[in-house]
């Protein structure tokens, strides 16, 4: 998929490459990744578009074609719903939103709390945690938080429903919006059924990201303070 983002790949094409029947391929892909092949391919295309917007001078139309969209209008709409910003605004803001706002939903249920841990010896840096309706971290989470180190977390006033707790960490020396070649860690727990006044205590474990993990599509809030950035510069020097 990654090497053929500009091509109109079909499920038949993917299954043929994997030497599976179309139905067996789709079933196994969903079982292993948590989402359908078509949805995974769409996520990869948006991820590549984010990178191109931040690292090249290509126009939105050129990027749309490069990642496999025949209509720039369809691309822009899909990008905005997944990332939270239109492509041109995402570029203008350098890949960040001023604030990650949780999705407004009625029927407040309970809270999700727990402890986030990373592999021994890992330097996870910032840890982003959010509750989403699917296994793909896109759009607005229903609740979210950011940790500067592994440890306890709590999300209050979580709407009633079924949510996936998704998280990823960005190395301390990395640009949060450009992590393709970085030692990123991810984690996933769910679905979590949240009911009225329910409290879910979660053991959330980060692990090294793999090629089978859906990419993070939502634009992140730049939460590193000037003091934190200065510490990174000092450590690098």
TrEMBL record:
Q: Does the keyword Metal-binding apply?
A: no
This protein's record includes keyword Transcription regulation: yes
| Keywords in alphabetical order | DNA-binding, Transcription, Transcription regulation
Q: Where is the HTH araC/xylS-type domain?
A: 1-93
Q: One Pfam annotation, family name?
A: HTH_18
* Record-linked SMART domains: HTH_ARAC
Q: Which residues form a coiled coil?
A: none
Name-wise, this protein is Helix-turn-helix transcriptional regulator
Organism this protein belongs to = Streptomyces ficellus
């Amino acid at each position: 998929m990654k090497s053929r983002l500009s091509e109109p790949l079909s499920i038949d094409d993917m299954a043929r490459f994997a030497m599976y029947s179309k139905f067996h391929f789709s079933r196994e892909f969903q079982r292993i990744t948590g989402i359908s092949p078509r949805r995974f391919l769409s996520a990869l295309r948006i991820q590549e578009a984010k990178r191109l917007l931040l690292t090249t001078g290509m126009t939105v139309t050129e990027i749309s074609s490069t990642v496999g969209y025949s209509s720039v209008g369809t691309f822009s709409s899909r990008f905005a719903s997944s990332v939270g910003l239109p492509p041109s605004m995402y570029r203008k803001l350098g890949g960040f939103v001023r604030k990650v706002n949780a999705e407004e939903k009625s029927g407040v249920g309970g809270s999700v709390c727990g402890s986030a841990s990373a592999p021994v010896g890992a330097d996870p840096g910032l840890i982003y945690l959010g509750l989403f309706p699917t296994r793909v971290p896109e759009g607005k989470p229903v609740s979210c938080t950011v940790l500067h180190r592994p440890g306890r977390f709590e999300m209050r006033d979580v709407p009633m429903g079924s949510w996936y707790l998704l998280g990823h960490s960005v190395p301390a020396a990395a640009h949060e919006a450009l992590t393709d070649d970085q030692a990123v860690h991810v984690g996933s727990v769910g679905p979590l059924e949240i009911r009225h006044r329910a409290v879910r205590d979660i053991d959330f474990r980060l692990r090294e990201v793999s090629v089978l993990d859906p990419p993070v599509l939502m634009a992140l809030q730049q939460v590193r303070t000037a003091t934190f950035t200065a510490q990174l510069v000092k450590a690098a020097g």
